[in-house]
């Protein structure tokens, strides 16, 4: 039986799509925009080794501990083969294929936002960068810094939305259901969660880019290093430690300005004193303004990770990681619908009981 040409082409395209995205997924150490890019992996191990040698992350100073203990503590089977960690790996691969397949058409960056603003304001589309005069050095330096601040602020806002809006919190639960932290926990997120975390920073950085285009009337780009925003590249050198057992705090002074790995580890705590704290990524000022900053001590606190409810330990299944948030979101919608109907019924009853 001959297969029609269009079916054969569709199968070929599907095979290429899956093969391409799986290849990208299994070679993150070669992807410059991945937290697992090889310079970031090296820096993570180096900082972890330094912290271990200096005795950081322990209740008392204990320099000189053996390297065998170091590898057992940070690279042992108990951590990397924990049921929660195994679920991270499966979700990482699944998202690598499903996210671009299902949501690829709604993903956008700051360039699309700039174009949208021009369209709404009925401004003529700016010419290509090749046809514009390059902005000067001071403007580029300022744009590099402002873009970073806008990006960090956008991620903070997105993170707050995921925590504050009950509907979105159902999807963010996937990330907070982690029982152990490894760099792969960064990717433990529902596709809806990932979309929110992509959309909001795109809006804030797009607005910043549009303002600079208007102010300079020329082509402007931020400084890059190895293909990534220079400041973000530096921040990523320590980024993997946020999701790790390596306790590294900046102390009470710098901890009020910068988010350390310990800040984010406390964010994963299910202890009441830590609920909703430290939602920022690089700058602690947003949490200070919003009232969610919890500055970690130099020595580690004792706390439990997870959601802190009866579901802890039950999320480590791919179907549950994808479907439980959908079911939870549906329950939120139905509760709101029932609440509105009850409110209307109460108002109707009050109206009928009034004197004419």
Q: Using the alpha-carbon principal axes, give the shape.
A: globular
The helix-strand sequence is HHHHHHHHHEEHHHHH
Which structural class matches the secondary elements? mainly alpha
Radius of gyration: 24 Å
Average pLDDT works out at: 88
Q: What's the total number of strands?
A: 2
Low-confidence stretches: none
What is the number of helical segments per DSSP (H or I, 4+ residues)? 14
The count of domains is 1
Distance between the termini: 80 Å
User: What portion of residues belong to β-strands?
Assistant: under 5%
Percent of residues in helices comes to: 55-70%
Main sheet makeup: 2 strands, antiparallel
Largest beta sheet: strand ordering: 1-2
Notes on the protein architecture:
It is a single chain. This protein has 356 residues and is mostly helical. It has one domain. It is built from 14 helices and two strands, in the order αααααααααββααααα. The protein has helices at 5-26, 38-54, 67-75, 77-80, 83-103, 110-120, 137-164, 166-176, 191-216, 230-239, 251-254, 261-267, 285-290, 318-352, and strands spanning 224-225, 228-229. It has a two-stranded antiparallel ribbon. Helix 7 crosses helix 8. It is globular, with a radius of gyration of 24 Å. The chain starts with a helix and ends with a helix.
Give the secondary structure arrangement, pairings included.
Blueprint: H1 5-26, H2 38-54, H3 67-75, H4 77-80, H5 83-103, H6 110-120, H7 137-164, H8 166-176, H9 191-216, E1 224-225, E2 228-229, H10 230-239, H11 251-254, H12 261-267, H13 285-290, H14 318-352
Antiparallel strand pairs: 1-2
């Amino acid at each position: 039986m001959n297969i029609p040409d269009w079916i054969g082409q569709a199968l070929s395209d599907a095979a290429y799509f899956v093969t391409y995205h799986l290849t990208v997924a299994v070679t993150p150490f070669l992807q410059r925009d991945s937290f697992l890019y090889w310079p970031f992996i090296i820096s993570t191990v180096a900082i972890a080794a330094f912290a271990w040698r200096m005795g950081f992350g322990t209740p008392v100073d204990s320099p000189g501990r053996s390297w065998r203990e170091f590898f057992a503590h940070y690279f042992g089977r108990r951590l990397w083969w924990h049921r929660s960690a195994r679920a991270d790996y499966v979700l990482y691969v699944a998202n690598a294929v499903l996210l671009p397949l299902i949501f690829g058409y709604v993903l956008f960056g700051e360039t699309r936002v700039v174009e949208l603003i021009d369209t709404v304001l009925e401004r003529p589309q700016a010419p290509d960068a090749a046809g514009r005069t390059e902005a000067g050095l001071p403007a580029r330096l300022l744009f590099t810094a402002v873009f970073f601040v806008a990006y960090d602020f956008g991620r903070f806002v997105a993170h707050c939305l995921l925590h504050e809006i009950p509907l979105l919190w159902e999807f963010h639960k996937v990330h907070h259901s982690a029982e152990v932290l490894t760099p792969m926990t960064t990717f433990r997120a529902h596709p809806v969660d990932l979309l929110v975390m992509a959309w909001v920073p795109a809006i804030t950085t797009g607005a910043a880019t549009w303002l600079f285009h208007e102010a300079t009337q020329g082509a402007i780009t931020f400084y890059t290093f190895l293909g990534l925003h220079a400041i973000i590249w530096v921040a990523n050198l320590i980024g993997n430690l946020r999701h790790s057992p390596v306790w590294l705090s900046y102390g009470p002074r710098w901890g009020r300005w910068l988010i350390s790995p310990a800040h984010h580890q406390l964010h994963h705590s299910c202890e009441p004193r830590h609920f909703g704290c430290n939602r920022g990524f690089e700058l602690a000022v947003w949490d200070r303004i919003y009232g969610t900053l919890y500055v970690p001590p130099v020595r580690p606190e004792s706390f439990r990770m997870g959601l802190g409810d009866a579901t802890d330990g039950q999320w480590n299944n791919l179907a549950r990681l994808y479907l439980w948030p959908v079911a939870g979101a549906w329950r939120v919608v139905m509760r709101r619908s029932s609440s509105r109907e009850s409110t209307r019924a109460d108002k109707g009853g009050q109206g009928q009981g009034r004197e004419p």
